[in-house]
Amino acid sequence: MASILDRFVVHARIQFLRHLRSPVIWVLALAAPIAARYLLPKAGADYSVMAVNGAYLELDPAVIGFQLGVVMAVILSPLAYIFLRAGPTRTQPWQADDMTPARRSVQMLAHWVADTGALWILMLVLGLAGVLLSAFRLPLSDVRPFQTLLALSLIAAPALAVIAGLRTVFSARRGLRGAGGDVVFFLVWLAMLIMAASYFATGVGGSPMLDILGIAAPLSGATDQVISELILIGSASYEETVRIDALAGVLSSDFLLSRLLWIGMTAVAVMAAGAIYAPHRFKPLRRAASGAGGPASFSGSPISPAHPIGSFIPLLLSDIRLLARPHWLAIIVILVALAGIMLPFRGMVGAALSLLLIFPLTQHGARWRGQQMAALSAVTPRGPEDVIIRVVAAVLVTALLCLPSAMRLVLTGEGGPWIDIVAIVVGLPLTAILLGHLTRSAVAGRLLLLILWYIYLNIGSPPI
Amino acid sequence: MLELINVGQRYGRKTVLDGISHSFAPGVTVITGPSGAGKTTLLRLCASAERPKSGTLSWNGKPLGRSPRAFRTGLGYAPQRIDFPEDISGLDFMLHMAALKMIGTGAARIQATALLDRLGLGRDASGLIRTYSGGMRRRLGLAQAFLGDPDILVLDEPTAELDPVTAEHVHDLIFEQRAVVLMTTHLAESLANRKYQTLKISMLDSVK
């Protein structure tokens, strides 16, 4: 019998190699330096990546790492989750795995370590790009690679480990393996942002443990100012700069201890998830619902002819029909759309409709994108343009659903919500279908659109 | 007629097929050869799912170009495995495949239902694919290939995972087609009473 350590190493190695052997991680690694270029803008840029109390951070080697780390922990962490849930390790051979006597806790811990390792590779690539860019943003004599990488790692590495932990924990329970897990992740991510904000509110003396993403505590520790405003990725440009001691912030003993504790607690949560692991359930066909039981019956009747008619209309109709799956959701969506005749669109019908549409649209965008399924569609005469037709079908359906609200706007003469309708009719289907098509999964579209939906709900106008 | 002239395929440094020339006439041709000889690769080339590294394929005298829509309009292809969309019914899947083949909605429904009946899936047509067994998925993957009265059928192991009785029904359907049919099978002995051609490919990339 292999020892627990041996099994851990085997599971971790396989999971890690699956990441490395996929082109996805290398594409992301290539994208990281490009992202770093925009995350560290030149002086005088017309946008800000990180602004504190209405001022840019004055760049030094540690601040460069600090800024990249904060962006990675806050803004790129949903992308890290998407990479893990929709990337090369999204499928696991559970049909075989669930039947083995392997300890789930060991297996899940190994998966978490491998997933975290893959995310840390991407973080290091971003950090190295930051080091390279620091040679252009700072006097050459000021370049300190170690300080840049240290500040980045102490902020982003524990946050990414927590994100990988959430993915692993969600894979343990049936209700969290699909769309349910994505919604819960979105809520947890929001909660983590709120907790970071509440750390600012408590001021110095609050526990860094509150700050799971690890952004507020080091920032508070890096400056004597009271942080009243932190803006990440904004369109405003500022005249002033503020100097912070980033290393003091990330090297404070309370912060370091809290990071270690969060990594440790994530490891414990992952192992605990192994203990409550629910095997996948194969749902056999309920023959009672479809007729008498017994073996399949084969008819010998001839097959009537059906020749291609050369039109894209059948495909458009088929896409529209499949968008209405499941039927119960379609009925709710239609009822909400009809309520638009009486209720205001902005903040009510528009918000409800867009939230409800996120799920079927993203699902349909990815439905035909399994690797072998995509290869099969590709050799059909309409295969090459099926994504365009799918987008058209989704836009048509969404437009039809917005029609009652549009009629109300015409009758009442309201002007403001038209932009909301255009964003929902065009932006929502386009984002959902194209992201599903490109990533071959509904996860990316679902999570991104949930975040945009939340912003829409809060700012009262469409973010896209 | 599908014609292969000096067709070769290579993945990286590994040559899988080399110098294959053959003409496929209407009727069934069974492609045989040991595992790894390139049977599936040959079928993928014939289904225009891949482009050959060397040589040409032509359909009724016209070479298959980059986007051979005319050829694909008459093509029925059943690969060895399909990762089906699990959350729709077998009939929904058939209707969508018919739409991809540009078949009108009414005719598609009639033919899809008949094909599902013929392959023993009629009772379960409205069941979600996630509830289908391995054999049912195999038959569903096969059924979609027959949609639209194809002129050429490319079937990769159509009877794998099927019991002998079901395999016999599948063979009945295949052998009543007037199309050019290319198929691989590990159960060539079950075709003893049927009339078909054989194309044998060996590990050393040559055709006998």
Describe this structure in words.
Chain A has 464 residues and is mainly α. Chain A has two domains: 4-90 and 101-275, no CATH class; 313-459, no CATH class. Chain A contains 19 helices and four strands. In chain A, α2 (23-39) runs parallel beside α6, α13 (313-323) packs across α17 (386-412) and α17 (386-412) packs antiparallel against α18. Chain B is of the alpha/beta class. Chain B folds into two domains: 1-74 and 150-208, P-loop containing nucleotide triphosphate hydrolases (Rossmann fold, 3-Layer(aba) Sandwich), CATH 3.40.50.300; 83-149, no CATH class. In chain B, α6 links the parallel β7 (152-155) and β8 (180-184). Chain B is globular, with a radius of gyration of 17 Å. The chains are: A mainly alpha (464), B alpha/beta (208). At the A-B interface, α12, α13 and α16 of A face α2, α3, α4 and α6 of B.
Key structural traits:
heterodimer; A: 464 residues; mainly alpha; four-stranded mixed sheet; 66% helix; B: 208 residues; alpha/beta; Rossmann fold; 2 domains; five-stranded parallel sheet; four-stranded antiparallel sheet; membrane (chain A); transmembrane helix (chain A); transmembrane (chain A)
Distance between the termini of chain B: 20 Å
Second-tier CATH architecture of the largest domain in chain B: 3-Layer(aba) Sandwich
Q: Element order, helices and strands of chain B?
A: EEEHEEHEHHHEHEE
Q: Count structural domains of chain B.
A: 2
Quaternary state reads heterodimer
CATH topology of the largest domain in chain B, which one? Rossmann fold
CATH class of the largest domain in chain B: Alpha Beta
Q: Give the helix tally of chain A.
A: 19
Largest sheet of chain B: 5 strands, parallel
Percent of residues in β-strands of chain A: under 5%
DSSP summary: helix tally of chain B: 6
- The CATH homologous superfamily of the largest domain in chain B is called P-loop containing nucleotide triphosphate hydrolases
Q: Shape of chain A, please?
A: globular
The radius of gyration computed from the alpha-carbon positions of chain A, rounded to a whole number of angstroms, is 25 Å
Number of strands of chain B: 9
* DSSP strand count of chain A: 4
Estimate the helix proportion of chain A, in percent: 55-70%
Shape of chain B: globular
Question: What's the helix-strand series of chain A?
Answer: HHEEHHHHHHHEEHHHHHHHHHH
Protein name (chain A): ABC transporter permease
Keywords (chain A): Membrane, Transmembrane, Transmembrane helix
Transmembrane segments (chain A): 20-40, 62-84, 112-136, 148-170, 182-201, 260-278, 322-342, 348-366, 387-406, 418-436, 443-459
Protein name (chain B): ABC transporter domain-containing protein
